[in-house]
Write a structure and sequence with these properties.
about 375 residues, Immunoglobulin-like, globular, mainly beta, four-stranded antiparallel beta sheet, 6 helices
């Protein structure tokens, strides 16, 4: 199912003013509809079957496009212009921002492209007591069918790795993705349910603001009041004004609220982040990439452990056409964590859309060495 590649381009994306790397830049090869994402070093490797216009987008930078033919250096540097100095302005609306968000969710559900195939690179890093103990990644195809109200997926795994050692402190409830319903949750925008309830208006301050980077977009911001109690995140929803669809959803618990939570005797959360980025290209509306981070405390054999799981998904290829497959090859487990390693190519370097940083390579190599030494 992998495609032949004959154009390979290495790029580092940097901030024009500070010359520092920019991570989580969404990159699209428009002609081939391939997706990529910069790592925390700002680096990305783009592999194409034919030349294309390459588009770079990020929530706090101006978009930029370049022809792949012009990227001829061994390592090409792309600079993005930050517009964070531009102030957001509050937009007065006749409808409550929460009602606007409810409408956006319904419209986005209706316009999401189904059926379709998403070829996805996914990876997970696990930390215990601030030390990396496990890593897994893989190339996965999500065959998405059904309709906007009832989404179903068949999962087919091309290749995968499972590296490191886990014990009983990681169970099915905290494995990160549940692959069987992750696309359904993303396409149903289930992660914003927290701010769509009646109670949310008492706990959150809702505002609609301008989006300085794109005059066609607005932002709905929902921030918890200081007086509100509980595990509440800061939410930001970027949407297209004309199409009435959601382009990005992000949420995170601030350090200030985490400190308040940690003062509670039974607090279990020490980190919580989420981000979904969507694309609308050539009339097709689909997921581009996602990130989730969950940090929690858990008792295991009388010991209080600090656990953190970080997940990334990058849609490397979108296709409206479904391919044929044998039903016996459908993957039904919640995670790749227990799947036997199956590697045919160095997909993490060439097919992933998200190459590992130097530090991440060192972490993975150390986990391989640890597992080999014990076995």
């Amino acid at each position: 199912m992998s495609f032949a590649q004959n154009i390979s381009i290495k790029i580092v994306v940097k901030d024009f003013e500070t010359d520092t790397p920019i991570d989580e830049v969404t990159i699209t090869a428009l002609k081939t509809n391939q997706g990529f994402l910069t790592n925390s070093d700002g680096a990305v490797q783009i592999n194409l079957t034919k030349h294309s216009i390459i588009e770079f987008t990020h929530s706090t930078y101006n978009s930029f496009s370049v022809k792949s033919e012009s990227l001829t250096k061994k390592i090409n540097i792309i600079y993005l212009d930050s517009k964070t100095q531009l102030l957001e302005e509050v937009v007065l609306t006749k409808d409550h921002p929460q009602d606007i968000l409810k409408s956006l969710v319904e419209t986005s559900k209706d316009k999401i492209t189904i059926p379709a195939n998403l070829k996805v690179y996914l990876r997970e890093f696990y930390k215990r007591n601030d030390k990396f103990v496990f890593f897994n990644d893989g190339l996965v195809n999500f065959q998405i069918f059904g309709n906007s109200r009832k989404i179903e997926t068949d999962i087919l795994v091309e290749q995968n790795r499972a590296i490191g050692l886990l014990d009983g402190d990681i169970d099915d409830g905290v494995l990160g993705y549940n692959l069987n319903n992750i696309i359904e949750n993303y396409y149903q925008f289930a992660y914003v349910d927290e701010i769509l309830s009646k109670r949310a208006r008492k706990d959150y301050d809702f505002q609609v603001k301008t989006y300085p980077l794109n005059e066609d977009y607005l932002v709905i911001r929902a921030l918890p009041y200081d007086s509100a109690n509980g595990v509440l995140s800061d939410f930001y929803v970027v949407y297209d004004i004309k199409k009435r669809i959601i382009m990005e959803v992000s949420a995170m618990i601030t350090n200030k609220r985490l400190k308040l939570l940690e003062e509670e005797e039974n607090s279990k959360i020490h980190k919580l982040e989420f981000k979904n980025v969507f694309k609308f290209e050539d009339g097709f509306y689909h997921l581009a990439n996602s990130k989730e981070v969950i940090g929690f405390y858990k008792k295991y054999k009388g010991e209080k452990r600090k656990i953190e799981v970080k997940n990334n998904m990058v849609v490397t290829n979108f296709d409206k056409k479904m391919f044929e497959y044998d039903k016996k090859n459908i993957f039904t487990d919640k995670s790749l964590i227990n799947r036997k390693t199956t590697v045919f190519t160095e997909y993490w370097e060439f097919d992933s859309g998200l190459i590992p940083t130097v530090k991440e390579k060192e972490i993975i190599q150390s986990l391989v060495a640890l597992k080999d030494s014990i076995e």
